[in-house]
Design a protein that fits this description.
The protein is mostly helical and 211 residues long. It is 68% helix and 2% strand. The protein has a two-stranded antiparallel ribbon with strand order 1-2. Helix 4 (67-89) crosses helix 5 (91-97), helix 6 runs antiparallel to helix 7 and helix 7 packs across helix 8 (182-210). The chain is globular and about 60 Å long. The mean pLDDT is 90.
């Protein structure tokens, strides 16, 4: 179990959102404030980690023909728990994220890690995979949220700071309101992915030139 490699895979080299391009819906739909991004990110980390652990523990007794259905049942159980906890303890976040919490059941990030990793590895490695992959996904959500909130509303920390209003950075009237609309999500995501790919491929180009 290579912890450092798992961490780097989750954060950068195999980032679920920015490299594997999984779980795009939340990235485009709810990343209009830091509150939303952090909330969804923490929910994904909890659900992904717990699902990975349970699926890894049951991997030898789950029949191969019904494994996907079993994975979905496990994931749905944890999604329901997180959804109810949010409604009970953080109702503002639950209302803001809406259906996107229940839709984590069919999020490709969760199911992909269940099929691609936890069904083939031990409990410890699967738990770390859930934490690191979830953290990498949360980083992508936060980056998207900060950029879109700053450009679209002119604030930082919406939902968290200054009684939920966020800290006003841009003067009123200078915001690019389109950034908090769907088109802004696509534009921001494209730029973030392009930047990540540029820095990931840059060392390879330098090595080729050196040779």
């Amino acid at each position: 179990m290579n912890v450092k490699k798992q961490f780097m895979d989750g954060l950068i080299t195999q980032n679920a959102a920015l490299v594997q391009l999984l779980g795009m819906c939340p990235l485009l739909a709810i990343t209009t404030s830091l509150f939303n991004g952090l909330g969804m990110g923490v929910a994904v980390i909890i659900i992904l980690t717990c699902s990975n652990v349970v699926i890894s523990a049951l991997r030898k007794i789950i029949p191969n023909k019904v494994r996907i259905a079993c994975y979905i049942v496990v994931i749905a159980g944890f999604v329901t728990m997180v959804d109810l906890l949010l409604k009970g303890f953080v109702p503002a976040l639950s209302a803001s994220l809406g259906l996107f919490i229940p839709l984590i059941v069919v999020n490709c990030v969760i199911l992909g890690r269940a099929e691609g990793f936890s069904s083939k590895n031990g409990i410890g490695a699967s738990a770390l995979d859930g934490i690191f992959q979830g953290f990498g996904y949360m980083v992508a959500l936060v980056i998207m949220s900060v950029v879109r909130e700053f450009l679209g509303a002119g604030t930082f920390g919406g939902g968290l700071l200054n009684d939920g209003k966020g800290i006003q950075i841009l003067p009123s009237g200078t915001e690019a309101l389109g950034m908090i609309l769907p088109v802004g999500g696509f534009l921001t995501l494209g730029v973030v992915i392009a930047v990540v790919q540029y820095f990931m491929n840059k060392p390879k180009k330098n090595k080729e030139v050196a040779k």
